[in-house]
Amino acid sequence: MNNGMHPKALALINSCGLRRTRPRLTILSALLMADSPQTQDQIAEQLGVAAPDKTTIYRTLMTLIRHNLVHQAYLKNRTRHFELAHHCRADQCHPHFTCTECGQTHCFHDVEIPPVRNIPAGFLVRHRQLRLEGICAACRKKSETGN
What we know:
This protein is of the alpha+beta class. It has 2 domains: 1-86, Orthogonal Bundle (Arc Repressor Mutant, subunit A), CATH 1.10.10; 88-147, Dna Ligase, domain 1 (2-Layer Sandwich). The protein contains 5 helices and 5 strands. A 3-stranded mixed sheet has the order 4-3-5, with no helix packed on it. The chain has a two-stranded antiparallel ribbon with strand order 1-2. It is globular and about 45 Å long. The N and C termini lie far apart (37 Å).
């Protein structure tokens, strides 16, 4: 990364025809470097002194969502988290697993959410999202070995 910019951030911006602004590039760079969905505050913290103000971060995230570069995931306590949308489809985000022991969230990119059946008449499902909670493999192993 040079100047805090991830090389793929520019390609993502160009792919959807958006103007290349510093907030868009830095926020995409932060999400590219993250290994799990991030809150708005976590994004600002990761950017440090280069972080735009909170309003600019929020507006930039909403623009990136509208252009299907970023998705929202609601994790613990229904808090908004943001992540790149490259592992998701427009109608379905991949499942997220949050460990109740360590608090880490894991993205299950290769897990399909089965279709919902028997939706009452008059309702139209536009997006499916699945949030799972339990004990991650690392915490489970620790508890089994007594460490």
